[in-house]
Amino acid sequence: MKKFYIYILTNKTNKVLYIGVTNDLIRRIYEHRNNLLKGFTQKYNVHKLVYYEATGNVLEAISREKSMKRWKRVWKEKLINKMNPDWDDLYEKII
After folding, report:
1. Distance between CA atoms of 62 and 57, rounded to whole angstroms?
2. Nearest 5 degrees, angle CA 30-CA 65-CA 1?
3. Distances from the Cα of 14 to the Cα of 48, 76, 90, angstroms
4. What is the DSSP string of 18-51?
5. CATH number at residue 89
6. Domain that holds residue 31
7. What whole-number distance in Å separates Cα of residue 78 and Cα of residue 83?
8. Cβ atoms within 10 A of the Cβ of 27, count?
9. Each residue's pLDDT tens digit in the chain (95 positions)?
10. What is the pTM of this model?
11. Number of domains in the chain
């Protein structure tokens, strides 16, 4: 079964949050970390994976991403804290 991932990245100081969706989490985070993608994450050095979740439904993943982007920051922080209370970079754990 194909998986789709909703993920949250931050910068070194955890001040900036970026939410994205992908069908290949390892590849996508690699692209962000190595500035292969022009835009927000490159401009603000948002390279640290602090949260992700998976689903088998692409429409569900896209809907969840759009919903989370509308959330208040405090709600996003609570979600991250449940999975990753120390805001560690999870990239090394998924590769």
Report:
1. 9
2. 70
3. 9, 12, 14
4. EEEEES-HHHHHHHHHTT-S-SHHHHTT--EEEE
5. 3.40.1440.10
6. 4-94
7. 9
8. 11
9. 899 999 999 999 999 999 999 999 999 999 999 999 899 999 999 999 999 999 999 999 999 999 999 999 999 999 999 999 999 999 999 99
10. 0.96
11. 1
